[in-house]
Amino acid sequence: MEQLKKILSDPTIGKIAIILFGILIIWIVIKAVQRNFISKLKDSNQRYKTKKISSFAGYLFSILIITIVYSDKLGGLTIALGVAGAGIAFALQEIIASFAGWLAILFGGFYKTGDRVQLGGIKGDVMDIGILRTTIMEVGQWVDGDLYNGRIVLIANSFVFKEPVFNYSGDFPFLWDEIKIPIQYGSNYAKAKVLFVEIAKKTVGDLTDKSQQQWNLLQKKFMLENAQSEPMISIIATDNWVEFTLRYVVNFRKRRFIKSELFTQILTEVEKTNGEIKFASATFHLVEAPEIKVKITPD
Protein backbone atom coordinates (compact mmCIF):
# COMPACT_ATOMS: atom_id res chain seq x y z
CA MET A 1 0.00 0.00 0.00
CA GLU A 2 2.79 2.34 0.93
CA GLN A 3 4.55 1.43 -2.32
CA LEU A 4 1.41 2.33 -4.30
CA LYS A 5 1.14 5.69 -2.52
CA LYS A 6 4.78 6.35 -3.23
CA ILE A 7 4.28 5.59 -6.92
CA LEU A 8 1.16 7.79 -7.16
CA SER A 9 2.95 10.62 -5.33
CA ASP A 10 5.39 10.86 -8.22
CA PRO A 11 4.34 13.97 -10.28
CA THR A 12 4.85 12.32 -13.66
CA ILE A 13 2.88 9.18 -12.81
CA GLY A 14 0.19 11.29 -11.15
CA LYS A 15 -0.31 13.38 -14.28
CA ILE A 16 -0.47 10.27 -16.47
CA ALA A 17 -3.10 8.80 -14.14
CA ILE A 18 -5.17 12.00 -14.30
CA ILE A 19 -4.98 12.03 -18.12
CA LEU A 20 -5.99 8.37 -18.46
CA PHE A 21 -8.86 8.77 -15.99
CA GLY A 22 -10.10 11.95 -17.69
CA ILE A 23 -9.97 10.43 -21.20
CA LEU A 24 -11.79 7.32 -19.94
CA ILE A 25 -14.60 9.43 -18.47
CA ILE A 26 -14.88 11.50 -21.66
CA TRP A 27 -15.28 8.47 -23.92
CA ILE A 28 -17.69 6.72 -21.55
CA VAL A 29 -19.92 9.80 -21.70
CA ILE A 30 -19.61 10.13 -25.51
CA LYS A 31 -20.38 6.44 -26.13
CA ALA A 32 -23.39 6.67 -23.79
CA VAL A 33 -24.69 9.71 -25.69
CA GLN A 34 -24.18 7.96 -29.05
CA ARG A 35 -25.93 4.79 -27.88
CA ASN A 36 -28.86 6.36 -26.03
CA PHE A 37 -29.57 9.50 -28.05
CA ILE A 38 -27.76 9.77 -31.38
CA SER A 39 -28.55 6.20 -32.49
CA LYS A 40 -32.28 6.94 -32.04
CA LEU A 41 -32.33 9.80 -34.56
CA LYS A 42 -34.59 8.86 -37.48
CA ASP A 43 -32.80 10.84 -40.18
CA SER A 44 -29.76 8.79 -41.27
CA ASN A 45 -27.84 11.82 -42.54
CA GLN A 46 -28.39 13.75 -39.31
CA ARG A 47 -27.51 10.66 -37.26
CA TYR A 48 -24.27 10.19 -39.18
CA LYS A 49 -23.19 13.85 -38.85
CA THR A 50 -24.04 14.01 -35.14
CA LYS A 51 -22.07 10.84 -34.45
CA LYS A 52 -19.07 12.23 -36.33
CA ILE A 53 -19.24 15.52 -34.41
CA SER A 54 -19.46 13.73 -31.05
CA SER A 55 -16.42 11.59 -31.89
CA PHE A 56 -14.49 14.68 -32.98
CA ALA A 57 -15.47 16.38 -29.70
CA GLY A 58 -14.07 13.37 -27.82
CA TYR A 59 -10.68 13.76 -29.48
CA LEU A 60 -10.75 17.51 -28.88
CA PHE A 61 -11.50 17.14 -25.15
CA SER A 62 -8.81 14.46 -24.83
CA ILE A 63 -6.22 16.83 -26.30
CA LEU A 64 -7.54 19.60 -24.04
CA ILE A 65 -7.01 17.49 -20.91
CA ILE A 66 -3.44 16.69 -21.94
CA THR A 67 -2.81 20.40 -22.60
CA ILE A 68 -4.19 21.45 -19.20
CA VAL A 69 -2.26 18.82 -17.26
CA TYR A 70 1.04 19.68 -18.94
CA SER A 71 0.37 23.42 -19.25
CA ASP A 72 3.35 24.23 -17.01
CA LYS A 73 5.66 22.40 -19.43
CA LEU A 74 4.41 23.99 -22.63
CA GLY A 75 6.24 27.29 -22.25
CA GLY A 76 9.64 25.68 -22.75
CA LEU A 77 8.45 23.80 -25.81
CA THR A 78 7.37 26.91 -27.76
CA ILE A 79 10.72 27.49 -29.41
CA ALA A 80 11.23 23.82 -30.23
CA LEU A 81 7.76 23.54 -31.72
CA GLY A 82 8.32 26.66 -33.81
CA VAL A 83 11.53 25.27 -35.28
CA ALA A 84 10.01 21.87 -35.93
CA GLY A 85 6.75 23.30 -37.29
CA ALA A 86 8.09 24.09 -40.75
CA GLY A 87 9.60 20.62 -41.15
CA ILE A 88 6.44 18.92 -39.90
CA ALA A 89 4.25 20.99 -42.22
CA PHE A 90 6.40 20.02 -45.22
CA ALA A 91 6.50 16.33 -44.31
CA LEU A 92 2.78 16.16 -43.60
CA GLN A 93 1.55 18.49 -46.34
CA GLU A 94 -0.72 15.80 -47.88
CA ILE A 95 -2.26 15.04 -44.49
CA ILE A 96 -2.76 18.75 -43.80
CA ALA A 97 -4.34 19.20 -47.24
CA SER A 98 -6.66 16.23 -46.60
CA PHE A 99 -7.70 17.69 -43.24
CA ALA A 100 -8.37 21.05 -44.92
CA GLY A 101 -10.36 19.17 -47.57
CA TRP A 102 -12.42 17.52 -44.83
CA LEU A 103 -13.30 20.95 -43.40
CA ALA A 104 -14.16 22.19 -46.90
CA ILE A 105 -16.42 19.18 -47.51
CA LEU A 106 -18.27 19.62 -44.21
CA PHE A 107 -18.74 23.38 -44.37
CA GLY A 108 -18.46 24.06 -48.11
CA GLY A 109 -21.22 21.70 -49.24
CA PHE A 110 -19.11 19.80 -51.79
CA TYR A 111 -21.01 16.57 -51.03
CA LYS A 112 -22.48 14.57 -48.16
CA THR A 113 -22.95 10.91 -47.32
CA GLY A 114 -25.37 9.24 -49.72
CA ASP A 115 -24.52 11.53 -52.64
CA ARG A 116 -23.36 10.07 -55.93
CA VAL A 117 -20.12 11.78 -56.93
CA GLN A 118 -17.15 11.48 -59.21
CA LEU A 119 -13.99 12.32 -57.32
CA GLY A 120 -10.42 11.70 -58.40
CA GLY A 121 -11.67 9.84 -61.47
CA ILE A 122 -13.76 7.46 -59.31
CA LYS A 123 -17.56 7.45 -59.55
CA GLY A 124 -19.77 6.08 -56.80
CA ASP A 125 -21.90 6.71 -53.70
CA VAL A 126 -20.33 8.35 -50.64
CA MET A 127 -20.37 5.90 -47.71
CA ASP A 128 -18.30 7.81 -45.17
CA ILE A 129 -16.44 11.12 -44.89
CA GLY A 130 -13.43 10.70 -42.64
CA ILE A 131 -10.95 13.32 -41.45
CA LEU A 132 -8.42 12.29 -44.10
CA ARG A 133 -10.32 10.13 -46.61
CA THR A 134 -13.72 9.74 -48.24
CA THR A 135 -15.04 6.19 -48.62
CA ILE A 136 -16.94 5.48 -51.86
CA MET A 137 -18.87 2.45 -53.09
CA GLU A 138 -17.82 2.43 -56.74
CA VAL A 139 -20.17 2.15 -59.71
CA GLY A 140 -19.37 1.38 -63.33
CA GLN A 141 -15.88 0.36 -64.54
CA TRP A 142 -16.29 -3.27 -65.73
CA VAL A 143 -20.05 -3.13 -64.90
CA ASP A 144 -22.27 -1.42 -67.48
CA GLY A 145 -24.56 1.38 -66.36
CA ASP A 146 -24.80 3.03 -62.96
CA LEU A 147 -24.62 -0.20 -60.94
CA TYR A 148 -22.36 -1.07 -58.01
CA ASN A 149 -19.35 -3.19 -58.85
CA GLY A 150 -18.66 -4.08 -55.20
CA ARG A 151 -15.34 -2.24 -54.93
CA ILE A 152 -14.87 0.16 -52.00
CA VAL A 153 -12.52 3.05 -52.76
CA LEU A 154 -10.78 5.36 -50.27
CA ILE A 155 -9.97 8.79 -51.73
CA ALA A 156 -7.91 11.49 -50.01
CA ASN A 157 -9.99 14.56 -49.16
CA SER A 158 -7.27 16.75 -50.70
CA PHE A 159 -8.66 15.83 -54.15
CA VAL A 160 -11.41 18.44 -53.71
CA PHE A 161 -8.70 21.08 -54.22
CA LYS A 162 -6.95 19.31 -57.11
CA GLU A 163 -9.70 18.05 -59.42
CA PRO A 164 -13.32 18.87 -60.27
CA VAL A 165 -15.94 17.34 -57.97
CA PHE A 166 -18.94 15.99 -59.91
CA ASN A 167 -22.04 15.70 -57.73
CA TYR A 168 -24.93 13.83 -59.35
CA SER A 169 -27.38 14.32 -56.50
CA GLY A 170 -26.60 17.52 -54.57
CA ASP A 171 -29.09 20.38 -54.90
CA PHE A 172 -30.61 18.82 -58.02
CA PRO A 173 -30.95 15.01 -57.69
CA PHE A 174 -32.03 14.54 -61.31
CA LEU A 175 -30.22 14.05 -64.61
CA TRP A 176 -31.11 14.74 -68.20
CA ASP A 177 -30.70 11.61 -70.28
CA GLU A 178 -31.52 10.80 -73.89
CA ILE A 179 -31.87 7.87 -76.27
CA LYS A 180 -31.48 7.84 -80.04
CA ILE A 181 -34.03 6.01 -82.22
CA PRO A 182 -33.29 5.40 -85.96
CA ILE A 183 -36.44 5.51 -88.10
CA GLN A 184 -36.68 4.59 -91.79
CA TYR A 185 -37.29 7.25 -94.40
CA GLY A 186 -40.92 7.24 -95.48
CA SER A 187 -42.30 6.55 -92.00
CA ASN A 188 -44.95 8.70 -90.37
CA TYR A 189 -42.62 11.15 -88.61
CA ALA A 190 -45.35 13.20 -86.93
CA LYS A 191 -46.93 10.09 -85.42
CA ALA A 192 -43.54 8.81 -84.30
CA LYS A 193 -42.77 12.10 -82.56
CA VAL A 194 -46.09 12.12 -80.67
CA LEU A 195 -45.78 8.41 -79.81
CA PHE A 196 -42.27 8.68 -78.34
CA VAL A 197 -43.13 11.73 -76.21
CA GLU A 198 -46.26 10.03 -74.83
CA ILE A 199 -44.26 6.91 -73.94
CA ALA A 200 -41.65 9.05 -72.16
CA LYS A 201 -44.30 10.95 -70.18
CA LYS A 202 -45.95 7.71 -69.09
CA THR A 203 -42.65 6.05 -68.14
CA VAL A 204 -41.05 9.01 -66.35
CA GLY A 205 -44.23 9.73 -64.41
CA ASP A 206 -44.29 12.64 -61.98
CA LEU A 207 -40.53 13.23 -62.21
CA THR A 208 -41.22 16.09 -64.61
CA ASP A 209 -43.06 18.13 -61.96
CA LYS A 210 -40.66 17.18 -59.16
CA SER A 211 -37.59 18.09 -61.20
CA GLN A 212 -39.16 21.39 -62.25
CA GLN A 213 -39.80 22.29 -58.61
CA GLN A 214 -36.20 21.49 -57.71
CA TRP A 215 -34.97 23.50 -60.68
CA ASN A 216 -37.03 26.51 -59.58
CA LEU A 217 -35.40 26.32 -56.13
CA LEU A 218 -32.00 26.07 -57.80
CA GLN A 219 -32.72 29.20 -59.84
CA LYS A 220 -33.37 31.13 -56.63
CA LYS A 221 -30.02 30.02 -55.24
CA PHE A 222 -27.84 30.31 -58.35
CA MET A 223 -27.75 32.27 -61.61
CA LEU A 224 -29.47 29.82 -63.97
CA GLU A 225 -31.78 30.01 -66.94
CA ASN A 226 -35.01 28.06 -67.12
CA ALA A 227 -34.74 24.49 -68.42
CA GLN A 228 -37.34 22.20 -69.98
CA SER A 229 -38.03 19.25 -67.73
CA GLU A 230 -40.76 17.72 -69.92
CA PRO A 231 -39.77 15.00 -72.42
CA MET A 232 -38.87 16.43 -75.82
CA ILE A 233 -37.92 15.13 -79.28
CA SER A 234 -35.33 16.46 -81.71
CA ILE A 235 -34.97 15.12 -85.26
CA ILE A 236 -31.92 14.90 -87.51
CA ALA A 237 -31.81 13.51 -91.08
CA THR A 238 -28.73 11.34 -91.65
CA ASP A 239 -27.46 9.47 -94.72
CA ASN A 240 -29.16 6.25 -93.65
CA TRP A 241 -32.19 7.18 -91.52
CA VAL A 242 -34.09 9.85 -89.61
CA GLU A 243 -32.63 10.00 -86.10
CA PHE A 244 -35.07 10.79 -83.30
CA THR A 245 -33.42 11.89 -80.03
CA LEU A 246 -35.69 11.56 -77.00
CA ARG A 247 -34.58 13.73 -74.07
CA TYR A 248 -36.08 13.34 -70.57
CA VAL A 249 -35.39 13.86 -66.86
CA VAL A 250 -34.62 10.89 -64.63
CA ASN A 251 -33.62 10.25 -61.04
CA PHE A 252 -29.86 9.77 -60.83
CA ARG A 253 -30.26 6.28 -59.34
CA LYS A 254 -32.75 5.01 -61.95
CA ARG A 255 -31.12 6.07 -65.22
CA ARG A 256 -30.45 2.52 -66.45
CA PHE A 257 -33.87 1.21 -65.37
CA ILE A 258 -35.79 4.04 -67.07
CA LYS A 259 -33.79 3.69 -70.29
CA SER A 260 -34.54 -0.03 -70.42
CA GLU A 261 -38.24 0.59 -69.78
CA LEU A 262 -38.38 3.25 -72.49
CA PHE A 263 -36.84 0.98 -75.12
CA THR A 264 -39.23 -1.83 -74.14
CA GLN A 265 -42.28 0.42 -74.53
CA ILE A 266 -41.02 1.96 -77.79
CA LEU A 267 -40.36 -1.45 -79.37
CA THR A 268 -43.82 -2.65 -78.37
CA GLU A 269 -45.70 0.44 -79.58
CA VAL A 270 -43.83 0.71 -82.89
CA GLU A 271 -44.74 -2.89 -83.74
CA LYS A 272 -48.41 -1.99 -83.20
CA THR A 273 -48.30 0.66 -85.95
CA ASN A 274 -48.32 -2.09 -88.65
CA GLY A 275 -45.41 -0.64 -90.60
CA GLU A 276 -46.49 3.01 -90.38
CA ILE A 277 -43.35 3.56 -88.30
CA LYS A 278 -40.31 1.41 -89.09
CA PHE A 279 -36.97 1.10 -87.40
CA ALA A 280 -33.93 1.63 -89.59
CA SER A 281 -30.65 -0.25 -89.66
CA ALA A 282 -27.40 0.09 -91.54
CA THR A 283 -27.65 -1.50 -95.00
CA PHE A 284 -24.92 -2.24 -97.50
CA HIS A 285 -25.51 -2.47 -101.27
CA LEU A 286 -23.08 -4.82 -102.98
CA VAL A 287 -22.36 -3.71 -106.54
CA GLU A 288 -21.60 -6.36 -109.17
CA ALA A 289 -18.01 -6.37 -110.38
CA PRO A 290 -17.59 -4.91 -113.92
CA GLU A 291 -17.02 -7.29 -116.82
CA ILE A 292 -13.39 -7.67 -117.81
CA LYS A 293 -12.40 -8.60 -121.37
CA VAL A 294 -8.98 -10.13 -121.98
CA LYS A 295 -7.48 -10.32 -125.47
CA ILE A 296 -4.55 -12.70 -126.04
CA THR A 297 -2.39 -12.21 -129.14
CA PRO A 298 -0.07 -14.95 -130.42
CA ASP A 299 3.69 -14.34 -130.45
At CATH's second level, what is the architecture of the largest domain?
2-Layer Sandwich
Largest sheet: 5 strands, antiparallel
Which CATH first-tier class of the largest domain would you pick?
Alpha Beta
**Could you state the order of secondary-structure elements as H and E?**
HHHHHEEEEHEEHHEEH
Beta-strand percentage range: 15-25%
How many H/I helical runs? 9
Quick overview:
The protein has 299 residues and is of the alpha+beta class. It has helices at 2-8, 11-36, 44-69, 71-91, 93-108, 159-162, 189-204, 207-221, 255-271, and strands at 116-119, 122-129, 133-139, 148-156, 166-167, 174-183, 232-237, 242-251. The model has no long low-confidence stretch (mean pLDDT 78).
Task: Provide key terms for this protein.
SH3 type barrels, alpha+beta, Alpha-Beta Plaits, three-stranded antiparallel beta sheet, elongated, five-stranded antiparallel beta sheet
How would you describe this structure to a colleague?
It is built from nine helices and eight strands. With 299 residues, it is α+β, with helices and mostly antiparallel strands. It folds into three domains: 2-91, no CATH class; 103-167, Roll (SH3 type barrels); 174-271, Alpha-Beta Plaits, CATH 3.30.70. Helix 2 (11-36) runs antiparallel to helix 3 (44-69) and helix 7 (189-204) crosses helix 9. It is elongated, with a radius of gyration of 32 Å. The mean pLDDT is 78.
